[in-house]
Sequence to fold (380 residues):
Amino acid sequence: MTGNLFDIKIGYATPKNPIALAPMAGITDSRFAFRFRNAGMIVLGSYNLDDRTNDAAQKEIARGRKEFVSKEPMEFLESELEAAKDLTTVAVNVRAATIEPYIEAAHLAKKSGAILEINAHCRQPEMLELGVGEALLKDAPGLCEYIREIKKTGVVLSVKTRANVVNDVELARAIESAGADIIHIDAMPQSGEMQDFPGADIRVIKRVRNSTGLFIIGNNSVVDFESAKDMFSHGADMVSVARAALSEPGIIDNLVSEVSSFQKLTGWYNAPKHICGGGDLRALAFCCLPVKPCALHGALKQAGITAEEFMKIKTEFARKTPIEYGEGTCFGSMTWCCKITKPCFLRDGALTSIGLSDVEYMQIKKRLSEYILKRRKNKG
Fold:
């Protein structure tokens, strides 16, 4: 449906677009997922991998919750991977009380070309008592040991987390250092903030984006393209849809269509907001020269880059690229111009004069953002 429009790569996984179906215990299995095959990724599960988690799930079912329970968990997992393998990029969200089942599941996932996702998200008391789900967030050393051992299999590994349980930046950095590829963040606001800030806590996505190079899947309250775009513009590489898929089965097809149109129009579907609009550090690519007091200086301080270094980095990148030019723009070069979705007749005139399209301009700005952050990382 979208071809190579997005060029998303996570190890051996190549999702066709940045829209995912989220795991929902007792709901998201291969049969349910079939109707959402246009998604770039389907995350099945959560599946229980051992007797202890299956027994805990039985207790949850007894009190009215939905869960997947199986007498032969690995055979069940393998059958689910086989049933879903031709739909799209597949991930399996799993739970276990010890490391061995994770390792076995990782081998099955890799063999199938799927992603393995550690469930560090479930907060049901029966699971917490086993040290499973959200309990892993409070045991970062244990979680990181799981990650290191699982990654020895070569599987592409995701960790599903819940925001505002522990320090999200410290957690994400630990997950990245341990070797995980993806962080799937349920951006749930703090309980006291839910009334004041309905929906997702977008600030968490931004903080993790500014602090790690992990592939970020944003989750929570993705109900339309505006809510998805809000997550994208704060640093999410992909968004996942959960309960909205139950109430509106066509939502994923609609989101895929809209984000594809936006990508064709702009060339950078998850371009950040401008720094002065609250954007993450990728937005340094859109900032002008640091010649007046503004939010840029705070962002540079956070990035550990001086104003002089910033000017040098952007000038070095722009040399011999089309954005080096821009006579008539504010600073004589499109290196310092803003994103294409912000109206500017000076920038647009410069683009027209050199025959550079909006999409080409934004793709160069995306490479510029990567260059700036790489220099920041090397400096650090």
User: Anything to note?
Assistant: The chain is about 40% helix and 10% strand.
